[in-house]
Design goal:
single chain, 172 residues, mainly beta, Pnp Oxidase, Chain A, seven-stranded antiparallel beta sheet, three-stranded antiparallel beta sheet, 3 helices, 12 strands, 13% helix
Length: 172
């Protein structure tokens, strides 16, 4: 019989806190996406690692966004968003959309107006245009649920990941 390792000593355990949650999720590798929308003053977007497939029938996705995020006012008011799956060659694009105060749609970001006036980024692994069906309050964030309307899965390359507080690619 093999002994089961202990969960940890009392000195290792931490009470629930924002720091504990951040520390645990740094260990969780996540794919990197950029969410875009058309706002009253122009395009907005942000880097998201919370993108999830919710349902195949109907095709639904979800993502989280901070209620204090600069993109939230546009996302809260729009009907449509773009979802872009980034490739490992797009680390700088991910950093640009994650950086507060950055000119996210200025050069060198390549983009065009897509269906439903959604900003569509060029060179991504895949993209979707979705219609928002729900915005659910969740602490200091909102969970946005959106129905997929159309997309393009044909980009080439390998996915960009976020792990331990930095972007990286897959290892073979």
């Amino acid at each position: 019989m093999t002994a089961t390792p202990a969960l940890g000593t009392p000195g290792d355990l931490q009470p629930a806190s924002p720091d504990l949650l951040r520390s645990v999720f740094r260990r969780h590798a996540a794919g990197v996406a950029v969410i875009t929308a058309r706002g009253p003053a122009g395009p907005v977007g942000f880097t998201a690692t919370s993108l999830t497939s919710v349902s195949a029938e109907p095709p639904l996705i979800s993502f989280g966004i901070g209620a204090g995020a600069s993109s939230w006012p546009a996302v809260s008011a729009t009907d449509h968003i773009g979802v872009h799956i980034l490739g490992e060659h797009q680390e700088e694009l991910a950093a640009t959309f994650a950086r507060s105060g950055a000119d996210r749609f200025g050069a060198p970001t390549a983009w065009r107006e897509g269906p439903e006036s959604v900003p569509v980024l060029d060179g991504v692994l895949a993209w979707l245009v979705c219609r928002i069906v729900a915005r659910v309050p969740a602490g200091d964030h909102r969970i946005v649920i959106a129905e997929v309307l159309l997309g393009d899965p044909a980009g080439a390359g390998r996915p960009l990941l976020y792990h331990q507080g930095r972007f990286s690619g897959l290892r073979d």
